[in-house]
């Protein structure tokens, strides 16, 4: 859902969206293992310790001074430093899944348009993105949502920005997602 402020700024028009908004959506993505948004924003002091501790520099100071992820800068390697350095109760235990977001491959994908490209697969350590060979054609990407850990490694390497973060992956209706 588009927040009112973003609507009034014209962000419903894709031409006015930044590259980050096109890939990650309108809402910022909090650090891995962050508590629910209301708890996180209520207890986070915006000290910046987690941003400075981030090994890959994927954490930035976002809207309102709160830390958020910017996958255009890097991927998350789940080092846990952001949670370890934080003095506030805004992180969940590190043995829980870091995020619930996953990725979706959009129809603008080069491989889906008949151009050989596998940059997303080459950068996906969890092997959530695989390419299925087709006789007499270009291999097509398939996303295994169970393997996707949401690290973001595939986002910045896509030459046409065809990889997007999705929040509610249970209702995903995409030709690149496994059915049933």
Mean pLDDT: 85
Give the SSE string. HHHHEEHEHEEE
Strand order of the largest sheet: 1-2
Poorly predicted segments: 171-180
Number of extended strands: 6
Please count the helical segments: 6
Structural class: alpha+beta
What can be said about the biggest beta sheet?
2 strands, antiparallel
Ends distance = 26 Å
What is the radius of gyration computed over CA atoms, rounded to a whole number of angstroms? 17 Å
| Helix share bin | 10-25%
The share of residues in extended strands comes to 5-15%
Query: How would you describe the shape?
Result: elongated
What does the secondary structure layout of this molecule look like, with pairings?
Blueprint: H1 4-8, H2 19-24, H3 37-43, H4 49-53, E1 59-61, E2 67-69, H5 81-85, E3 102-105, H6 119-122, E4 129-132, E5 140-143, E6 163-166
Antiparallel strand pairs: 1-2, 3-6, 4-5
What is the structure about, briefly put?
18% of the residues lie in helices and 12% in strands. The protein has helices at 4-8, 19-24, 37-43, 49-53, 81-85, 119-122, and strands spanning 59-61, 67-69, 102-105, 129-132, 140-143, 163-166.
Give a written overview of the molecule.
It is built from 6 helices and 6 strands; from the N terminus they run ααααββαβαβββ. It has a two-stranded antiparallel sheet. A two-stranded antiparallel sheet has the order 3-6. The chain has helices at 4-8, 19-24, 37-43, 49-53, 81-85, 119-122; strands spanning 59-61, 67-69, 102-105, 129-132, 140-143, 163-166. With 180 residues, it is α+β, with helices and mostly antiparallel strands. It is elongated.
């Amino acid at each position: 859902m588009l927040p009112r402020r973003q609507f009034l700024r014209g962000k419903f028009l894709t031409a006015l969206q930044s590259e980050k908004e096109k890939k990650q959506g309108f809402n910022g993505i909090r650090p891995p293992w962050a508590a629910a948004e209301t708890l996180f924003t209520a207890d986070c002091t915006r000290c910046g310790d987690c941003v400075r501790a981030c090994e890959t520099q994927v954490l930035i100071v976002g809207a309102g001074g709160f830390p958020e992820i910017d996958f255009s800068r890097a991927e998350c390697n789940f080092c846990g430093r952001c949670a370890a350095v934080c003095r506030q109760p805004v992180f969940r235990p590190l043995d829980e899944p870091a995020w619930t977001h996953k990725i979706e491959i959009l129809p603008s994908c080069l491989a889906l348009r008949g151009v050989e490209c596998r940059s997303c697969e080459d950068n996906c350590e969890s092997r959530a993105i695989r390419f299925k060979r087709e006789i007499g054609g270009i291999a097509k990407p398939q996303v295994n949502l169970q393997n996707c850990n949401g690290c973001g490694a595939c986002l910045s390497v896509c030459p046409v920005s065809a990889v997007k973060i999705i929040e509610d992956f249970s209702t995903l209706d995409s030709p690149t997602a496994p059915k049933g």
